[in-house]
Design goal:
Serine Threonine Protein Phosphatase 5, Tetratricopeptide repeat, single chain, globular, 70% helix, 2 domains, 231 residues, disordered N terminus, mainly alpha
Length: 231
């Protein structure tokens, strides 16, 4: 599985959430440097209009106007992240952390990018630091669970996915990742017997995938549901 590592959430969903969180930082920046605030507002507009190159150009001008502000690097790094420019994103998150070592958001984003680079142990280090700075992140941190899987810390992964179940108890992907951790450690029969109970994940073909891991469906049935459904 090492050759096809992917974060489990849809890219567009992550993009919207990441931008939404970061936009909340900008009133503080704007008070300190009005030009930075204006540049970021223009960058946001360009991104929302579908002009990624212009959005990054304006974000770079914001960095140049506010080179001592972690939020400018965090913002541009997130634009790079959404364009899957992992090295550029990590470099900006590095700088954000240098400027603000207690910025949980920067650690969290850098951890995600390190994961995509295949740097699984480093991603865990960043996720751990983000959670230490902001403990409210821990229960919902499915990304750390996936990183645990890839460094063969299967029991830690199992526990993380069980914790996530308290946040969303209808997430088939979470149940499957826990299954995979348990299958590696305890064997498929145990993992199947203790598969987390999912009542209704409305995304097609998630319930068919759940049935597959429960031993109650075939790959062909999953593919048929995927072709006929609306993910």
């Amino acid at each position: 599985m090492m050759h096809s590592v992917q974060i489990k959430r849809p890219h567009r969903f992550e993009a919207i959430c990441a931008l939404g969180m970061l936009f909340g930082l900008w009133p503080d920046v704007a008070r300190g440097a009005e030009d930075v605030g204006k540049l970021v507002t223009q960058s946001r507009a360009a991104w929302q209009a579908g002009d990624a190159a212009r959005a990054v150009e304006l974000a770079t001008k914001a960095v140049e106007a506010g080179p001592d502000k972690a939020a400018t690097y965090l913002y541009r790094g997130t634009l790079y992240e959404m364009q899957r420019k992992h090295a550029e994103a990590v470099a900006d998150f590095d700088r954000a952390i240098e400027l603000d070592p207690r910025n949980a958001e920067a650690y969290d984003h850098r951890g995600s990018e390190r994961f995509k680079q295949g740097r699984f142990a480093d991603s865990i280090t960043d996720f751990d630091r983000a959670i230490a700075l902001d403990p409210a992140r821990e229960a919902g941190h499915w990304k750390r669970g996936i990183s645990y899987y890839y460094v063969r810390r299967y029991d830690d992964g199992r526990k993380q996915f069980e914790h996530y179940q308290t946040v969303d108890n209808n997430d088939v992907e979470n149940a499957v990742w826990r299954f995979l951790c348990m299958a590696r450690q305890d064997g498929v029969p145990v993992a199947r017997r203790e598969l987390l109970k999912i009542k209704q994940d409305r995304r097609a073909p998630m319930m068919e995938i759940y049935a597959l891991f429960a031993g109650q469906a075939t790959p062909d049935q999953v593919l048929a549901a995927a072709r006929s459904g609306d993910p």
